[in-house]
TrEMBL record:
Catalytic activity: carbamoyl phosphate + L-aspartate = N-carbamoyl-L-aspartate + phosphate + H(+)
Name the UniProt record assigns to this protein: Aspartate carbamoyltransferase
Entry keyword Secreted: no
Assigned EC number: 2.1.3.2
Family: Belongs to the aspartate/ornithine carbamoyltransferase superfamily. ATCase family.
Organism: Microbulbifer thermotolerans
Amino acid sequence: MDFIGANILSVSQFERGDIDRVFQVADKMTPYARRERVTRVLEGAILGNMFLEPSTRTRLSFGAAFNLLGGTVRETVGIKASAMAKGESLYDTARVLSGYSDVICMRHPQEGSVAEFAAASRVPVINGGDGANEHPTQALLDLYTIRKELEANGRSLDAFRIAMIGDLKYGRTVHSLCKLLCLFSNVQIILVSPPELAMPEAVVEKLRSAGHQVKISDQLESAISQVDIVYSTRIQEERFASQEEANLYRGRFRLNREIFTRYAQPNTVIMHPLPRDSRAEANELDTDLNEHPSLAIFRQTDNGLLVRMALFALLLGVEGKVDHYAREV
Ligand code: CP
């Protein structure tokens, strides 16, 4: 794909070579993310960061990534803080904000809304999550993390095994990750969820059409014993009709140190897009795993910075100039 000026709305727009390109640029961002080197390649550029649903890591890492490339961030957080609260349309908002920005990142509660916004924008728009639909940059950073973790054990993205666990119906990160996995070969996927929160059939069909082996299960212990990557997710309570309905599923598949140590293979890696639900009775990923070397959740969040820096550099056409505008710290 031609990255310059492109919107990033869905992982479906990527081919395998595009993924390689993003990861190659992300690798080069490491000294800048660590502040061993400083670049001003995006000096004068403005990111419009519009987050109309709660977020910690996506919003802040987009902002930090832009700042690390020398750019400035302008934020709108929550619908109430924007003129949408007064009835302004996505179209008008996009026309206005794109006049003030070089690139826009947007999270919105409704599926398809970021694409609608992007159609009216005069600058590239990156989807930071649209309802239960997609979260493409999370999937990229997840895949980047999986690649790094597998490579540390002499493995690659072709022919690995992953268990996705939890709310697979509403979890947009697993939808996007599954679609990205279709670009690779011979992946074995175990989908563990309550039947009511199963992965959408269209996504399962896509995985099978790509030649991957897909198993549907409700057995946590058995699933984690068969895989290289355990990808846990929280119950997406904001997508349920009521808190009570979400509570029916909370804590159904809880991974803790005792279960992980007893059933998982030695090199198995634990991932989670975060946030994890820290309320005691609901904890899908127990804090007793915090110091476990297999827990990659904070390596994921660190990798998110690299991947988002890479995307900004590619979309704004400066990936070849990052070193030119740099100095050692
Ligand atoms: N993973 C993720 O999207 O986290 P935030 O909701 O904190 O952005």
